[in-house]
Write a structure and sequence with these properties.
By secondary structure, the chain is an alpha+beta fold. The chain has 2 domains: 72 residues, Winged helix-like DNA-binding domain superfamily/Winged helix DNA-binding domain (Arc Repressor Mutant, subunit A, Orthogonal Bundle); 125 residues, Muramoyl-pentapeptide Carboxypeptidase, domain 2 (2-Layer Sandwich), CATH 3.30.1380. The protein is built from 8 helices and 7 strands, in the order H-E-H-H-E-E-H-H-H-E-E-H-H-E-E. It has a 4-stranded antiparallel beta sheet, covered by helices on one side. A hairpin with a 2-residue loop joins strand 4 and strand 5. Helix 5 packs across helix 8. The longest helix is centred in the middle third of the chain and has 16 residues.
Length: 206
């Protein structure tokens, strides 16, 4: 994000709305320059179309600008920190078996949004279905056939910052694959120890 446009987003975040003149004064730029940046931000879907602002004194109507929901992505988040603390607290308070049931439940909720298996689904069709769903969740997955089954690769971990210190996301991943493949996978590579991706062996079920 270009620095001036980032500052415009920050000002609108704090004020909720602002006019071109207010932004120009805050940033010490000309109104023409501010309008140029606002046009770009609008084209990117980050700033709403201007709304007419009521004036208490006579004069030309003013227009105010505000952020769209999409602009929220340009502000800091601490999802990983929150999730890490949540998992640590749960481990301290919940028995391992109960924790496993919770993770299986989360996996089941996720799988409920996945495409269902077709009748007489072949292994390649099943793997394509699994990969398509995992990719919709940000895993950048792929698969390849191998002796006795296939290898499922996850090139990206959506929970990277959390999984580095917590095993629970990996347990959930295995549960997702188990529920979709109909067989428990064997992890043969872990992104944090032996490479830049996680790889699972899925045995061909007869």
């Amino acid at each position: 994000m270009q620095a001036t446009r980032q500052r415009i987003l920050e000002i609108l975040k704090g004020r909720l709305t602002a006019t071109v003149e207010e932004l120009a004064k805050e940033l010490e730029l000309t109104p023409v320059t501010i309008r140029h940046h606002l046009d770009i931000l609008r084209s990117e879907g980050l700033v709403q179309a201007p709304q007419v602002k009521r004036r208490d004194t006579p004069g030309r109507p003013q227009h105010v600008y505000g952020l769209t929901e999409a602009a929220d992505a340009y502000f800091p988040k601490n999802y990983a920190g929150f999730t890490d603390m949540m998992l640590r607290e749960m481990r301290d308070r919940v028995e391992p078996e109960k924790m496993r049931l919770i993770l299986d439940g989360v996996a089941t909720r996720m799988v409920s949004k996945a495409p269902t298996a077709s009748v007489n689904e072949t292994l390649p069709q099943r793997m394509e279905r699994i990969v398509k769903f995992l990719n919709s969740q940000g895993y950048d997955a792929s698969w390849e056939p191998t002796e006795g089954g296939c290898l499922l690769h996850a090139h990206n971990c959506p929970y990277h910052d959390v999984a580095r210190e917590n095993v629970e996301p990996c347990v959930m991943d295995a549960s997702i694959i188990t529920q979709m493949a109909g067989v428990a996978p064997q992890r043969v590579q872990w992104a944090f120890s032996s490479g830049n991706m996680c790889t699972y062996f899925i045995k061909h079920s007869k």
